Amino acid sequence: MRNHYESEVGHFEGAICPEVDTFREELEKSVEMVADKKENKILLYCTGGIRCEKASAWFRHHGFSDVNQLHGGIIQYAREVKEQGLTPKFIGKNFVFDERLGERITEDIISECHQCGAPCDDHVNCANDDCHLLFIQCTSCGEKFDNCCTPACQEIFHLPIEEQRRLRKGKIKQDTLSVYRSRLRPDLRKILREGLEKA
Length: 199
Ligand SMILES: [Zn+2]
Ligand SMILES: [Zn+2]
Description:
Oligomer: single chain
Shape: elongated
CATH architecture of the largest domain: 3-Layer(aba) Sandwich
Number of strands: 7
Bound molecules: zinc ion
Strand content: 5-15%
């Protein structure tokens, strides 16, 4: 019951991870993906257990007979596994919406920097406030692009703050990726290779 950017950096071994941006989409897509498995045992998990309350009812409503959920979510699971000295079945990082943007569960790095492809699972928000795109960026790309997602955002980021405000007010933002904010995920490597125009 997690979104793509959450599953990208960490998931349970063998979990079904739908490519979705929101919980609402997650519900619809996940039921579809296992539509032929109504008699199977289903185990749902999410960050802290809250989404699964809703999701388990949704699955039962759709005729699934053996629906289970991870109570307390990955947060509690990680704590218990640690206390009991067990090997986690959740690999990578647990994405959480605090300033860390993720709690490491195992040393595995299962994702890549969106800009250079190096192994990396550190999420950042683009430093251009008008863009704020959530993406994965390694330390060296962070230095190279001043924590921005593209050279276009980097350019805006370096303008005086008044100029940035003026641009925002005038809605002159075609040159940034702010249009992608929620539903689409830009392919940053492609954009960096070919430029924003052709992306
Ligand atoms: Zn990189
Ligand atoms: Zn940006």
